[in-house]
Write a structure and sequence with these properties.
The structure is a homodimer.
Chain A lengths: L2 E2 L1 H14 L4 H16 L8 H11 L10 E5 L3 E5 L5 H19 L1 E7 L8 H8 L3 E8 L6 E2 L13 E5 L7 E5 L6 H10 L8 E2 L5 E2 L18 E3 L11 H15 L17 E8 L6 H16 L17 H13 L1 E2 L2 H13 L9
Parallel strand pairs in A: 3-4, 6-11
Antiparallel strand pairs in A: 1-13, 2-3, 4-12, 5-7, 5-12, 7-8, 9-10, 9-11
Helix pairs in contact in A: 1-2, 3-10, 4-5
């Protein structure tokens, strides 16, 4: 695959969003979040969204001029109205307000409504970790969910991800960021586009049977609902523990969709691309000195890394959550970001249509 | 199996703990939590602990006279010292203080140290749900963990459970309460005691191989560490999603063991039976009217229950987390609680040794 410098990708994304009416500073933030997904190894959440968001702006789903606004607040809580602007701006604001409130009140919870697609939640939970806080972020995905409740034979729930980030002393910060479905839907569609198989346990086909064919999720030759497969909640295939991912999926639906009034899957007015958010920030120094906490966290991670590794494990040591992403980012900042030729051509086309002069060579 | 009235079990547990020096009111609380585990279908966390706790009191692990105490607090946070009394009392206190603080400050986080084994966390998260709050509880288990980090070939982490409870309008409250290991260790030892097989995906044997033999975890004919198997984190066997339970296990270790200074697995002074706790309470009315929240939660659960069920699913409808427990409790309150003959004999023996007059008939 052709490789691109991250700054070059960021610039073209910024230029596209500015050309579509986005204030420069906001366009930079959104482009940065998307490029960072590629840098961290999550291309399913990366620069392909330059294209999709351009389309969503044109269709009125994303308002490129909207700024998120605090519409309700106390010393420890707030509600943010994203006014259907870029979800990245709303998610940033949610976590920044949560951090501000936790700084004076030790712990805070901030919700958001009218929020568009936010991509990688880890981007925002990490904002708290950089300020010596534990950051948690929950996002429901209420529109036409195709994740199957545990024991069900139909899709209903969204991929409902959550993320937590924790600061460290010398090691890379701990974070995770995952869908409560087996995987994010984009990983299945990406495999389908590449003609690859997927592991059993990610989806079932239209008849509820296990399958490793990613095209069973959204068959290319049909648009009928009854022909679609469903995503499983994570761990669903495992006997006696299969309900656990399902429990977390419902929790995220409640925190991200009901507690903040944003809209759960039972609401009538949820939109494609909608995420409802709840952020929690905990100021570590309110419990124990932050330095002690970070030293101990490092010691825990060192101890985990010293555990002997399984013979067939794909890495040479046990990984700390987030480690793979930090390593991938370091590598890709130097070596560049791989983007498929077709995605690059589409990005160039969008830019050219907008009258931008783009160096289109690969 | 012989059946017993829940009140009869509660009385014998209370009498045993009182005879061992526990104030009556506290003994009642502990016995009630343990019997409720049986009522809800979790015998692995039930009345067998009458015997184990008696032993722990005699060995000085549990101080039957200790009362948990607030040792640090702000308007939104607190630290509780359990003084190595019954973990049930400390866990109750942690959640009660969290509820009190969330009532005035909207959200709170309360930690606990010097806390003994707490059994079912759902007991305490439900205290918040009964007061129109969302209750979360995290408990690390730092002593000699035998849960294998994802990709590792050795045990290290504890079973590190978490629980969340959410109030509803007319339906039973939502709660879940699960180990971040595939299952709680007691479910494996219980299967071993009963001579039953366990599903693959719960444990690996001493060589790291999948096994359905529960005695591979702690082989009865050896006490050597190198002969023991390990528990897996939940969902660990599932490709591409196997790290998720592991991420949550580490998070619980950090929240329950490091943030509150209670002691993580890298501390030198952690004890058998130790749990470190962190409770978070969120006052729903600080975000949306509690009535609206509860109505919408009911609607969500109704919608989930209407999803068609899988042909081979063991229930006739899709279950809401907690539903099975509430139903089991309703049934067992009427029909009695099954206790194995050997466990009952042991309980009667402990009581008799303490000079209690027990009706020992089954």
């Amino acid at each position: 695959l052709p490789r691109f410098d991250a700054e070059r990708l960021k610039k073209i994304g910024t230029d596209i969003f500015v050309a579509l009416g986005t204030p420069k500073r906001n366009a930079e933030i959104v482009a940065d979040v998307l490029v960072k997904a590629n840098l961290m190894g999550h291309e399913s959440h990366g620069v392909a969204y330059f294209i999709r968001y351009s389309d969503r702006i044109r269709r009125g789903i994303i308002d490129p001029k909207a700024e998120p606004e605090i519409v309700q607040e106390s010393s420890t809580t707030a509600l943010i109205d994203g006014h259907w602007g870029f979800g990245q701006l709303t998610a940033n604001k949610v976590m920044e307000v949560a951090i501000e409130k936790a700084r004076t009140s030790h712990i805070s919870a901030v919700g958001a409504c009218h929020c568009n697609h936010t991509t990688r939640l880890g981007e925002y939970s990490m904002l708290a970790a950089r300020r010596n806080m534990i950051g948690m972020l929950f996002a429901n995905v209420p529109f036409h969910g195709n994740v199957q409740p545990y024991g069900a034979a139909a899709g209903l729930l969204g991929t409902n991800p959550l993320s937590v980030a924790v600061p460290t002393e010398k090691m890379d910060p701990f974070f995770f960021d995952f869908a409560t479905s087996a995987v994010a839907e984009r990983r299945v569609t990406l495999a389908a586009a590449r003609g690859e198989k997927i592991p059993f346990g990610w989806i079932v086909d239209k008849n509820g049977n296990p399958t490793d064919d990613p095209t069973d999720l959204n068959p290319p030759n049909s648009t009928r609902d009854e022909d679609r497969g469903r995503l499983l909640t994570f761990g669903a295939a495992a006997e006696g523990q299969g309900h656990k991912g399902y429990c977390l999926s419902i929790l995220v639906e409640i925190l991200g969709g009901i507690l903040n009034g944003s809209g759960s899957l039972v609401a009538n007015d949820v939109r494609q691309s909608q995420n409802g958010l709840l952020a929690i920030a905990i100021d570590i120094g309110s419990f124990v000195p932050a330095e002690t906490f970070k030293k101990t966290t490092d010691a825990l991670f060192q101890r985990i890394r010293q555990t002997p590794v399984q013979p067939r494990f794909e890495h040479d040591h046990v990984l700390i959550p987030g480690e793979l992403e930090w390593n991938t980012m370091g590598k890709r900042l130097k070596e560049g970001v791989e983007v498929s030729e077709s995605t690059w051509r589409e990005i160039v086309n969008v830019a050219t249509e907008l009258g931008l002069k783009v160096q289109s060579d690969i």
